[in-house]
Amino acid sequence: KGGVEAKDIRQKISMSKDAIRIDEYSGESKQPTETVLVLIRKKQIVNLDNLDQTMTKESFEEREKRLAERKKQNEEDLKNMPPGPQHDRLEKLYRPMLDGDRTFEMYMNKEDPKEIVKVKCECVWVRDAKSPDYAPFKGFLHPDLELPYNSAEVLYLLRIIGSGLKDYLEKNRKVFRRMPMEMELDLAAGGTLHTKVISIERSSREELGEGLFDIPQGYKEKPAAGARKLPPPEKKTSEKTAGKTEEKTSGKADPDR
Q: For site-directed labelling of 217, which of 15, 97, 109, 120 has its Cα 20 to 30 A away?
């Protein structure tokens, strides 16, 4: 990831048509410190903290609703902030998420492939037709290896791309279903994501083992970051109370996926 809190991470991604497992390794650890399960058939996202054995769960519908709320809040942040350096900084930070009005176009360079993991990969990038200097996606795609799921939907749900780019990738699914072997993206959550595949292994479901895409036993569930709890039921009372609640936002991107 690039940005204020830039860091290099190692990931192992296991995927099937029904589920995706993303294991993230910190430092020299040989065991994943964090795991994300995208359960496509169940339409559920599970974040596992393997250090303290806690987890958060969200349905696709809940995640989409929260993303829509965050997008609306970001739009209000920009609308209410006066012109100046702070406004310009937030506008740049939020632009991957606030991309619904952009007109995207795709360019492909078939004449200058890049060899990654002994495979010649084709360069593809997406930019805004009205603002060509803004190109939120650039990648090198595998010539024939395809992802077994709707990658645009998953990238959106993981807060990697905005809704506008999601719709564009879905319209061009024939191209973007191919495995991205190297990729650079402006993150909807803020910052820049650089990825590069260092190895690929094809396995049968039996070889992957039982329970790979299952939620492990013994993990304690906690609320998803940014999720709103329902208020407690009102108590009937004869006394009148007066109060005021003010909700503040800092304009910073959410830390969760």
A: 15
Give, in order, the Cα–Cα distances in Å from 7 to each of 2, 24, 30, 195, 210.
Answer: 7, 12, 18, 12, 32
Tell me the per-residue pLDDT of 197-246, one tens digit each, with 9 for 90 and over: 999 988 887 787 778 999 999 999 998 766 554 444 444 333 333 333 33
Please tell me the total number of residues recorded for the chain in this structure.
Answer: 257
> Of 166, 158, 152, 149, nearest to 66 (Cα)?
158
Find, among 256, 253, 251, 190, the residue nearest to 2 by Cα.
190
Whether the Cβ atoms of residue 177 and residue 149 lie closer than 8 Å to each other? no
Residue 78 is inside which H or E element, if any?
helix 60-80
Q: What is the pLDDT of residue 156?
A: 95
CA distance 227 to 38: 18
**Residue (of 227, 220, 210, 215) closest to 51 by Cα position:** 220
Enter the tokens of residue 117.
Answer: 């993991």
Instruction: Determine the pLDDT at residue 171.
Output: 96
Strands of 178-186's sheet, edge to edge?
Answer: 104-116, 119-128, 137-146, 178-186, 192-196
HEC profile of 2-23: ECCCCCCCEEEEEECCCEEEEE
Per-residue pLDDT at 7: 67
89-139 per-position pLDDT tens digit: 999 999 999 999 999 999 998 888 999 999 999 999 999 999 988 999 999
